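Below sits my pick:
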Amino acid sequence: MSLELQPNFNEAGKRYYRDFSPGDDFYQLLIDMHRDLSDEQSALVNAKLVLLLSNHIGDIAVLREAMALAREGV
């Protein structure tokens, strides 16, 4: 498995009429997840989400590549 760097958002059974719509849906979910949380709560939710998605991916090489790319330029 390699790290997917192109937009890859979709929802099973949902038809999209614009290429960017699935990404917009994800961004809205992310914003909604943080709504009404303190900075500390938002950081905790982000940490939980990273761990849940990392476990779902499971491939250490992909996770290593993602971490390196995320850290670039920071």
Remarks:
- Residues 39-57 form the longest helix (19 residues).
- DSSP finds three helices and no strands in the chain.
- The mean pLDDT is 92.
- Helices lie at 21-34, 39-57, 60-71.
